[in-house]
Automatic annotation (TrEMBL), chain A:
Alphabetic keyword roster: Cell membrane, Membrane, Sugar transport, Transmembrane, Transmembrane helix, Transport
Species annotation: Kribbella antiqua
GO cellular component: plasma membrane
GO biological process: transmembrane transport
Name of the protein: Multiple sugar transport system permease protein
From TrEMBL, chain B:
SUPFAM superfamilies: Periplasmic binding protein-like II
Top-level taxon: Bacteria
Species, as recorded: Kribbella antiqua
UniProt cross-references to InterPro entries, sorted A to Z: Bact_solute-bd_prot1, SBP, TAT_signal
One Pfam family recorded for the sequence: SBP_bac_1
Descriptive protein name: ABC-type glycerol-3-phosphate transport system substrate-binding protein
Length: 294, 437
């Protein structure tokens, strides 16, 4: 093949590549780069959704650091993330181990446990509002254990009530992910462990967990980023109350943007959230990559 | 922040405002000429999108009014959209910036200042509502109903759902507690005393006397206003430029809020549901609670199971006080069919519709002589009629949402024992410094 033909072929290939990539690039530019750039710009402005944005430099960032509610929402969010991610993952893993074994009954149980994840969050929240209302199911169960509580109305209790619903809602999803991970593990390792006389608990810690690390890290990434971004459960159950006890960071951001018309300030909050999530995701994916390299 | 002035609708003021008010309307019609649906020719036509908060009882009245209007004006299509109350404001804000404004919105009078400061609402169109002058238009309504919708001498809405607060109480619970159902408390001190007598814990769960709304911003203002004003204080200064909740009156009012009611109780229908179920024996509410309570519990019958009375006063109060509010039909500045929107709003002021609103949903359209209508003969309407003269309809501030949320936080913090009243009041005042000024 002559050089001229090879060059023409390569050129044609390049044009085709550009042609095929252009729609995706345009989509990315229009729906990601432009809004992101505009958000960055807005974060340096005072903008009330009506008049034109007014440049105020770093004022929004300074006000953010000085606002007690900002720090309060950070604390609330950290409690929320820890309270949602750790118990959900531990419970999901404990349930996934028996459910990953073959059997019709286990398949049915896997489907049942997934039901809450399939229920729309709005509907689930309505169900839980009824459960938590005075005289509701939570009170009936609670009167023999915790006592009757203001499940969503007591600032000391409301966050834990929201977390119970969140764990219930997402547990099934993580169980399914762990089941898939467990079922993909090579069985010969377990057979070898059994021949060596390893007991179930020892096998779990020395064989299952190390092999499941990639799945664990994957679930951890989606759980942590999901929890940091979580807005709907607190909004639907408590609107961030009582006394802002459940005002997680995204809800604080939303209130500033849409309830108080402080779009510039909210854009600064959104950028901070983006930076935190990016840093977390990079760290977590680096962990995954390190695992793959080993 | 641009300061808005609100003043009582004096005829002279309205006369002056007429020309100014009409001008932007006509200008607005011209601006929207390209949409093809707006028409200043005096012929209602096209589609009118109406947004309002969810209110099932009023919706029945509204649907019937739409059917009647369509019979007279078949060229008009009315598209109502019911939106949950907590989302109405947010949805409207985003629609207004996205040029997706509806033609009519039922807007809370307390949020009007924010929209008007941003020039997002249209003054009333005189031709469309069939008035020759603002004087003539103003003559149709009670003075203080229109005054809360008037800014810089322009009227920005037609009032509906005009209310003062009341004391609602359960006659059956009073009788069970050995209290005379015909003698409801007239002072806040009595409310506290009765509340203790009405608090019981039995097989049916805890029952209490008084209950507050602890999480609803509009109710935070409506509840705290009579308490603070009755003591001679104010939550916000008259011009809305500063707050003074950390005054002795504000602190005493917050302490009172914490002393009665139970913030731990909850119901899917909030305090309305607790009252309808008899869990709470007393609450502050509007006249709509007559119908609403019965709709939540068909066994609760007004005048028999439950009743209403004027808002209690402090024993030492020199002047009576109550809180009040009004909703309004408004037209966004970016609405595409303004003339027909105002025309339809005017149709909703028809006696047949206003009587049905009152009878079916307990919603008052405060026309000049609304209390003389046969359907307004009930005791509840007479109380409202008396209270209107001294009710405080709140201070209009553009940052009302932020102010009311901070007030709700203060109430919740004190009621739940998270902060002492003086600290919560000071935190509120501090938070308002950067918001109201």
């Amino acid at each position: 093949m002559s050089t001229a033909i090879r060059v023409a072929g390569a050129s044609r290939q390049r044009r085709a590549g550009i042609g095929l990539a252009t729609p995706a690039a345009l989509f990315f530019l229009i729906f990601w780069v432009v809004p992101f750039g505009y958000s960055v710009y807005l974060s340096f402005t005072s903008y009330d959704l009506a008049s034109a944005p007014e440049w105020i430099g770093l004022d929004n960032y300074r006000r953010m650091l000085e606002a007690p509610q900002f720090w309060h929402s950070i604390r609330v969010t950290l409690v929320y993330v820890g309270g949602a991610v750790v118990p959900t993952m531990v419970l999901a893993l404990l349930l996934a181990i028996p459910l990953s074994r073959p059997g019709r009954a286990r398949a049915v149980l896997r489907s049942l446990i997934f039901i809450p994840a399939a229920i729309p969050l709005f509907a689930a929240s309505m169900i839980w509002r009824v459960i938590y209302s005075t005289g509701g199911l939570a009170d009936r169960i609670g009167e023999h254990t915790f006592g009757v509580q203001g499940w969503l109305t007591d600032p000391d209790v409301a966050m834990w009530s929201v977390l119970v619903m969140v764990i219930w809602k997402y547990l099934g999803l993580y169980v399914i992910l762990f089941v898939a991970g467990l079922q993909a593990l090579p069985q010969n390792v377990y057979e070898a462990a059994a021949i060596d006389g390893s007991r179930a608990v020892r096998t779990f810690f020395l064989v299952t967990l190390p092999q499941l690390k990639r799945t664990l890290l994957f679930v951890l990434v989606i759980a942590v980023t999901g929890a940091f971004n979580s807005f709907a459960p607190a909004y639907l159950l408590t609107q961030g109350g009582p006394a802002r006890a459940t005002e997680v960071f995204p809800l604080y951001l939303y209130n500033n943007a849409f309830s108080f018309s402080r779009m510039g300030f909210a854009a600064a909050l959104a950028l901070l959230l983006l930076v935190v999530l990016l840093a977390l995701s990079i760290a977590q994916f680096r962990l995954i990559r390190d695992e793959e390299d080993r | 922040m641009e300061r808005l002035s609100r003043r009582t609708v004096l005829k002279t003021g309205l006369g002056l405002g007429a020309a100014a008010g009409l001008s932007p309307f006509l200008q607005g019609c011209g601006d929207n000429g390209e949409s093809g649906s707006d028409d200043n020719s005096g012929t209602p036509q096209g589609t009118v999108k109406v947004w309002m908060h969810q209110e099932d009882l009023f919706n029945q009245v509204f649907q019937s009014a739409v059917a009647d209007y369509r019979k007279q004006f078949p060229n008009v299509t009315i598209e109502p959209l019911q939106i949950p109350l907590p989302q109405l404001d947010t949805k409207l804000q985003t629609a207004l910036i996205g040029d997706q404004a509806p033609d009519i919105v039922k807007t809370g009078g307390w949020t009007l200042a924010n929209y008007i400061r941003k020039r997002q609402l249209e003054p009333v169109s005189l031709p469309a509502v069939g008035a020759k002058s603002y004087d003539e238009f103003a003559d149709r309504y009670q003075e203080n109903a229109l005054s809360s919708l008037t800014f810089d001498e322009r009227v920005y809405g037609v009032p509906i759902d005009f209310n003062t607060t009341y004391l609602f109480y359960r006659r059956d619970r009073f009788a069970q507690a050995g209290l005379d159902p015909d003698k409801p408390p007239t002072t806040w001190e009595q409310v506290a005393e009765y509340s203790k007598k009405l608090t019981t814990t039995g097989a049916g769960g805890k029952k209490i006397g008084w209950q507050w709304f602890y999480t609803t911003p509009i109710w935070s203002e409506l509840e705290l206003t009579p308490l603070v004003r009755g003591l001679g204080g104010r939550i916000l200064s008259e011009d809305g430029s500063s707050s003074s909740l950390s005054s002795p009156e504000g602190i005493k009012a917050l302490e009172y809020v914490a002393s009665v009611g139970d913030p731990k109780l909850s119901n899917k229908n909030d305090v309305y549901g607790m009252f309808a179920d008899g869990v709470a024996a007393m609450q502050l509410s509007g006249v709509f609670s007559v119908s609403l309570t019965h709709s939540f519990n068909s066994k609760a019958v007004f005048g028999d199971t439950f009743d209403c009375a004027p808002v209690p006063q402090w024993a030492s109060a020199k002047e009576k006080t109550a809180s009040g509010y009004t909703w309004a039909w408004t037209v966004p500045a970016k609405a595409k069919n303004k003339f027909t929107a105002w025309h339809f709003i005017n149709f909703l002021q028809d006696r047949k519709v206003t009587d049905a609103s009152l009878k079916t949903a307990g919603l008052i359209v405060p026309t000049k002589d609304w209390q003389k209508e046969p359907v307004a003969k009930g005791k509840e309407f007479q109380i409202l009629s008396d209270q209107v003269s001294y009710a405080d309809f709140g201070t209009p501030v553009p940052a009302w949402n932020e102010m009311a949320q901070a007030l709700t936080d203060a109430i919740a913090a004190v009621a739940n024992g998270k902060k002492p009243a003086d600290k919560a009041a000071k935190d509120f005042d501090d938070a308002m410094k950067g918001v109201l000024g």
